[in-house]
Write a structure and sequence with these properties.
With 121 residues, this protein is mainly β. The chain has one domain. The chain is 5% helix and 21% strand. The chain has 1 helix and 4 strands. Strands 1-2-4-3 form a 4-stranded antiparallel β-sheet, with no helix packed on it. The longest helix has 6 residues. It is globular, with a radius of gyration of 14 Å. This is U-box domain containing 5. InterPro entries: Ubox5, Ubox5_N. One of its GO terms (molecular function) is ubiquitin protein ligase binding. It holds the Pfam family DUF5918.
Length: 121
């Protein structure tokens, strides 16, 4: 059985280190609204890689399959995609919004389960 754990009822958190194009916010990827989810995420056309998208979950998951559509709509190209995962039993930062995404600040991500997409060219 395949379950989309990025749906709102599973309470995922999402963050991107770059700005998005209007209407293509990173939050679309976990939106309850199907139209927004289908629209997806795009960074602004002038953004240089890498673009880090971090999705965090309040529970452990076993990733068996990841569906990613990297079509860009014609004005951005992709030459690589890297996927990183991390898991830990320590959930202390889950209640602390300031420490929500420590890996993006150069510190190791060790206090939550993380699924990170890195777009690179």
């Amino acid at each position: 059985m395949v379950i989309n754990v990025c749906l709102p009822q599973f309470k995922p958190r999402i963050h991107c280190n770059k700005i998005s194009a209007d209407g293509y916010e990173v939050e679309n990827l976990i939106s309850e609204d199907l139209a927004r989810r289908n629209r997806g995420f795009r960074s602004e056309y002038f953004i240089k890689p890498p673009v880090h998208v971090t999705i965090s979950f309040p529970f452990n998951i076993e990733i068996c399959r990841i569906n990613i559509d990297i079509s860009s709509g014609g004005y951005q190209t992709f030459s690589g995609l890297e996927v990183y995962t991390s898991t830990s039993c320590n959930k202390t930062s889950w209640q602390n919004p300031e420490g929500q995404f420590p890996g993006l600040a150069g510190q190791p991500v060790s206090d939550k389960d993380t699924f990170t997409l890195v777009r690179s060219e």
